[in-house]
Amino acid sequence: MKHALFVFIGIVLCMSCSVRAFAQPSKPNIVYILTDQWRASALGYAGDPNVITPNLDQFAEESVNFANAVSVLPVCTPHRAALMTGRYPTSTGMFLNDLYLPEEELCMAEIFKEEGYNTAYYGKWHLDGHGRENNVEVARRQGFDYWKALECSHDYNHMPYYENDDPRKKYWEEYSPFAIANDAGHYIDHQSREEEPFLLVLSIATPHFPHHSAPEEFKNMYPREEIILAPNVPEEFREKALDELQGYYAHCTATDRAIGQVLDKLKAVGLMENTIVVFSADHGELMGAHGIRPFTKQLAWDESINVPFLIHYPSIGQAKGAVVNAPINTPDILPSLLGLAGIPIPESIEGEDMSQLMKSPDPEVEGAALVMNLCPFTREYKFPEYRAVRTNRYTYVKTLEGPAMLFDNENDPYQMDNLVDKAHIAELQKDLDQELHRLLTKINDDFHPREYYLKRWNLELDPSKYAINYWQFDSGEGRVQSPKFQ
Predict the structure, then answer these.
(1) Which of 126, 130, 251, 290 is catalytic?
(2) To 5 degrees, how large is the angle CA 280–CA 159–CA 108?
(3) Vertex 27, ends 21 and 30: CA angle to 5°?
(4) Which of 129, 303, 441, 457 has its CA 20 to 30 Å from the CA of residue 219?
């Protein structure tokens, strides 16, 4: 009898150990895949006639697709700051590239760490403001502990990075999206055996230019003569657009393969059903549309502001493949992730919690998102400051001189017919103007000229390039510029 009791106890203990070894954490893991300059239209599931993205097309069938997601200020650093803080550029002062995000700002990883999450970051950071290839020191990583990242580089075939607390610069040994996906797979595999949930951000710098650096295997998939240009690309930019799109699409397809590897790993280790997975981008790329040179973002056309946003979450069930037309904005992402994870949303966050719409997606729900550019910089410095509202159907843009653009994106998806100040839509324009005013009032933005914001945040553009001078860090003469925390 005593022997039988010991056998029974041993069986129970073994079962307990087995359950503990494979138990899922009570809170969902989060894998956020952030790409760079990937416009929402440049995906197979979005209807692009050129691009090949089988892994993301499949992921779209398993996710909720926010088809009108926008970047609050469509360029790298401002988007990333808004993503990490859930706050608007007018509140953080992070409206230019190469600024240092103030350490006083409460950020994504800090919030999740407080809730018991392990935190990890791979790839491009672009929030440190201490030079693009300098080490982002441990104290400046805003709560991310596991670290294989760099401030900013687009040398995809010789990409540098820093690892955890090692101050030495290292280099990925292959095309960086593949290298990052492979290494992140090891992290995911390790975390699958841990009891704590994890937050993993994979910041993959493609398909941002230079486009010629895409692997030849993928460039060969896109002969120039077979690429179909959008009708809003004028003849003067045709050849340049074709040259760039060959490499752009090649980067997209290669990155799709890398992302597929990450998704396959999550499924292989049994984490997919307890993990929130997001695929998105920081901004788009005009690529010659509307007569604007390739590489341009910052402006308020959809090629620039409309970004992909797919989200898969535990118990997604019948919501798989659903499309939401109400826009989600960059500051909305952090509170929505917190809402899905059942974590209280800090008072500092300004974005909306859209987790209920993610759980019960409805294409008919109406919404409106605020897009802005306080101070266009570099070659875009010549363009005026603007504020814009993007709804399910319309885009309305206002400069300091007054209404500038109004598009019916349903009937005019390439935004070629500017309806602003047309008599037959006067009432609609008035409604959109009122909605824009409401959104600006909500964040206390009175829409001043750029000089007001530069002075308010004590920021200075280099007069030679109309940008924050990051290049002088290479010679040891750089000056960190950071908005004073308010």
Answers:
(1) 126
(2) 40
(3) 100
(4) 303
